[in-house]
Write a structure and sequence with these properties.
- The complex is a heterodimer of chains A (240) and B (242).
- Helix content of chain A is 38%, strand content 25%.
- Chain A has helices at residues 40-47, 72-78, 94-104, 110-123, 139-151, 169-184, 196-202, 220-225, 230-239; strands spanning 2-11, 14-24, 29-33, 55-60, 63-64, 79-82, 157-161, 188-192, 205-210, 213-218.
- Chain A is globular.
- In chain A, 47% of the residues are buried.
- Helices cover 81% and strands 0% of the residues of chain B.
- Chain B is built from nine helices and no strands.
- Chain B has helices at 5-30, 35-67, 72-87, 90-101, 109-135, 138-146, 151-181, 193-204, 208-238.
- Classes of the chains: A alpha/beta (240), B mainly alpha (242).
Chain lengths: 240, 242
């Protein structure tokens, strides 16, 4: 479903990604771990071109999205993204946050979009917040809305960029629960996170990144119990 | 009844003052309906301020778009405009536009003044708009784009509504600055509030009465505007806490 070939990205003189090769199958749940500054968020953001790669190729469903002729907006409709800082639209109600893109991008009428939104709000357990504004919600609630908002576009792939890193500890669980449910439904997911428990439980594959490359990748039971690479060992010994 | 010397002078001083003020009031404002210079002047000031405000906002939007464009030529044009307008006095710009640009054209002076002050204000307004757009977190744009909204739709539906709220205080301030800035329109022969006061001064040879009255009118108008703008800002802030 996603194929990444020799992906490079610089920020000024800093080389953040130094040649990433990766293939992600439909339905896979790939969790990316690694120390901060290792390039894992940049890698994720390259997948929907929020960062434009300097070199390399990204192919999604057989379409080379790194080709300048490809339709970025069309591509992004296939991929939902959830951010560390939620990025809900503060001037819109929760309902409008969720229905904005379906209505303005897909041209779905208001009634249908709202029905779908209610359905999604039930799924994330926040149907009573439809008419609230983002400022009235807790961090965990905001992130669950952000997930619902992304799902409203019916994406094939969901990207999560450290979705629980900005949350108070007691709110991490509610967000991970929603993500777990999504994983069980068969969604293709790429998750950058520091939640090793979640990685262990949900991931079909864990990528360990350091200094702009994928150092090691294995199923979670293997990478957590028997890491092969020295850097993986050093990192896991600090976080586990 | 015997008055002391001090008492007499004190009374005379008071009587003299009241006399002078009454006389000044009569000579400068009542006699020959001179107050009409100030009333008509105020109307002219408000009219030109309104027109140039509207033009300034329109120009400000266009220049913001140019300045934030990806094309270097657009940014270049915007930068030249900003540099020239912000680098020269508005009264000089007004005279150049009247005597040079429209020098050989028969055109309404009010239109000339509105265009000149509008062009001047547009530079400041565009910087206000630009700072407002930049004040909206980058994550908002990223969220919009990640949902598949185009750059334009993201700007119109997500960034601008938040930006406008952020820039209202600065925009209101610019309107007040503009109102006072128009006081130089007498240079091209328009009779605004400032010129009105000056005409009275030249007729009565009394400086303080017409000039202080004129200043007081400016002050009251600005205070009134500040009050109204304050109410609007308060309303906008209320909606922040929903």
């Amino acid at each position: 479903m996603i194929t990444v070939k020799d992906l490079h990205k610089h920020f000024g003189k800093l080389e953040v990604l130094k040649g990433i090769n990766e293939h992600i199958e439909k339905g896979e749940k790939v969790v990316v771990i690694g120390p901060s500054g290792s390039g894992k968020s940049t890698f994720l953001r390259c997948l929907n071109l929020l960062e434009v790669p300097d070199k390399g190729e990204i192919i999604i469903d057989g379409e080379a999205i790194t080709d300048p002729k490809s339709d970025v907006n069309k591509l992004r409709q296939k991929m939902g993204m959830v951010f560390q800082q939620f990025n809900l639209f503060p001037h819109l109600t929760i309902m409008d946050n969720i229905t904005l893109a379906p209505r303005k991008v897909k041209g779905i009428n208001k009634k249908d979009a709202e029905e779908k939104a209610i359905e999604l709000l039930k799924k994330v357990g926040l149907v009573d917040k439809a008419q609230s504004y983002p400022n009235q919600l807790s961090g965990g609630q905001k992130q669950r809305i952000a997930i619902a908002r992304a799902l409203a576009m019916e994406p094939e792939i969901m990207l999560f960029d450290e979705p629980t890193s900005a949350l108070d500890p007691e709110m991490v669980g509610e967000v991970l629960n929603v993500m777990r449910e999504l994983a069980n439904e068969g969604m293709t997911m790429v998750v950058v996170t520091h939640e090793m428990g979640f990685a262990r439980e949900v991931a079909s594959r864990v990528l360990f990144m350091d200094e702009g490359v994928i150092v090691e990748q294995n199923p979670p039971d293997k990478i957590f119990t028997n890491p092969q690479n020295e850097r993986t060992k050093a990192f896991l010994s600090k976080v586990l | 009844m015997i008055h002391t010397f001090a008492q007499i002078t004190q009374q005379d001083w008071l009587i003299n003052l009241v006399d002078t003020l009454a006389d000044g009031f009569y000579q400068n404002l009542i006699h020959q309906n001179r107050f009409m210079y100030l009333i008509n002047g105020l109307k002219m000031t408000l009219l030109v301020t309104l027109f140039s405000c509207l033009l300034g906002i329109l120009l400000g939007m266009i220049v913001t778009y140019l300045k934030m464009s990806k094309f270097w030529l657009f940014r270049f044009i915007a930068n030249i405009y900003l540099t020239i307008i912000r680098g020269t006095p508005s009264v000089v710009q007004l005279m150049i536009i009247y005597y040079v640009v429209f020098g050989h054209v028969d055109i309404n002076k009010i239109a000339v003044a509105s265009i000149a002050f509008g062009i001047n204000s547009g530079a400041y307004v565009s910087e206000i708009f630009r700072s407002g757009i930049l004040s909206v977190d980058k994550g908002q744009t990223e969220a919009g784009r990640s949902l598949g909204l185009s750059a334009t739709k993201t700007m119109v539906l997500i960034v601008l509504p938040q930006a406008i709220k952020n820039v209202l205080p600065a925009l209101f301030n610019e309107a007040i600055v503009l109102l006072k800035e128009t006081a130089v329109m007498g240079y091209i022969g328009l009779q605004d509030l400032a010129r009105g006061g000056d005409i009275i001064r030249s007729q009565t040879y009394a400086a303080y009465f017409p000039l202080l009255t004129m200043a007081l009118i400016y002050l009251v108008v600005v205070m009134l505007l500040s009050y109204i703008f304050g109410l609007i800002e308060k309303r906008m802030r209320l909606s922040d806490n929903r």
